């Protein structure tokens, strides 16, 4: 499900020199590495050049809840870096990943970059609204159908490939992995969906 693919949007209409001013550095993170810890101050807007990241919030009882995922091309950490606030979430690599750090001060100076970032924030808001809609469904089956239908409509195809594994899918839908697997198996037997690993086909809408 990727969180948006926004690097083209971020640099849209910018000249090569303007882009060079904004880009600070690129870093490589091995699977399992933490990029930003919760309560850590961050001053860079970032985007994923390659790989996959998870953005999680740790609850008071110590449980990890996946807020969203960031895949190749996705922009992240823009809100709290621009506001110069501590990160409310932890961001870590669930695959070997390359992350590009951008100069927030340079972005603020460039009106085209600021306008592009506003578009990204608007799309992010729509994305989070969609996730709330999935979580409002009462049963795991309805949550799964809500997610798959939304991804199918977004990609214009009944067969979709999610960018995360079964554990991440369960966390995203705020449910248990074994319960999710049981529901998926039942939905497959009932002819509602077909799937192999993280590729799903909606058979009944």
From TrEMBL:
Keywords: DNA-binding, Transcription, Transcription regulation. GO terms for molecular function: DNA binding; DNA-binding transcription factor activity. Residues 10-111 form the Cyclic nucleotide-binding domain. CDD domains: CAP_ED. GO terms for cellular component: cytosol. Residues 138-205 form the HTH crp-type domain. This is Crp/Fnr family transcriptional regulator.
